[in-house]
Amino acid sequence: MFTGIVQATCEVVAINKKDGLNTLEVAMEPELREGLITGASVANNGVCLTVTRIKDDRVFFDVMEETLSVTNLTKLQVGSQVNIERSLTFGREIGGHILSGHIHTQARVCGLSNTSEHFNIELEVDKKWMNYILYKGFVGVNGCSLTIGATTENRFMLHLIPETLKLTNLDLLELGDKLNIEIDSQTQAIVDTVERVLAQRGLTDSLNSVG
């Protein structure tokens, strides 16, 4: 489990590509590697990956074909910066919201506004996901826990503070880039439950009217 509070951006220094599998080699600072062991979970751009090897300042992750097909990790190149968060430790302060590291979809950057007063991002997703993307709710974006701004039929706004830009790779975005999206699990559960109850109630009312 993760909190969506990115700890650092780290450089991808090598990518070993095989059929159905990419091995990422990521350079990490000593404080990020402290206590890290093989088998541990680390979020890379919000994707929960397992540490397969540690050598000096390099940490290795295997990315399977299914993960590559649904996330932006397939677009990484040597020199890319990835958002890194170590897994949640019991007793640690939770400053964001609980994330699983399992990506639901990707969003396309369709608008950027960067001025001395603000940094705004407009993202576009498949319409079906907007049921769970609600004004003032939470969403995981490349592993960052962010508050949702204004929404439309298939777009939503993000308003980023300087601290978020300093610690993440979101300040490197360009129009057309794809970002990993993880829906807030509590929001999804509530929306799905309400829809199911309303659908069942509608069916019951229909049967009663026929009877």
TrEMBL record:
Keywords: Repeat, Riboflavin biosynthesis, Transferase. SUPFAM superfamilies: Riboflavin synthase domain-like (SSF63380). It is an enzyme of class 2 (transferase). It catalyses: 2 6,7-dimethyl-8-(1-D-ribityl)lumazine + H(+) = 5-amino-6-(D-ribitylamino)uracil + riboflavin. Its EC number is 2.5.1.9. Pathway: Cofactor biosynthesis; riboflavin biosynthesis; riboflavin from 2-hydroxy-3-oxobutyl phosphate and 5-amino-6-(D-ribitylamino)uracil: step 2/2. GO terms for cellular component: cytosol. Residues 1-97, 98-194 form the Lumazine-binding domain. It comes from the Bacteria. GO terms for molecular function: riboflavin synthase activity. Gene3D superfamilies: 2.40.30.20. Lumazine-binding repeats lie at residues 1-97, 98-194. Catalyzes the dismutation of two molecules of 6,7-dimethyl-8-ribityllumazine, resulting in the formation of riboflavin and 5-amino-6-(D-ribitylamino)uracil. PANTHER family: RIBOFLAVIN SYNTHASE (PTHR21098:SF0), RIBOFLAVIN SYNTHASE ALPHA CHAIN (PTHR21098). NCBIfam families: PRK09289.1 (NF006767), PRK13020.1 (NF009566), ribE (TIGR00187). This is Riboflavin synthase. It comes from Shewanella benthica KT99.
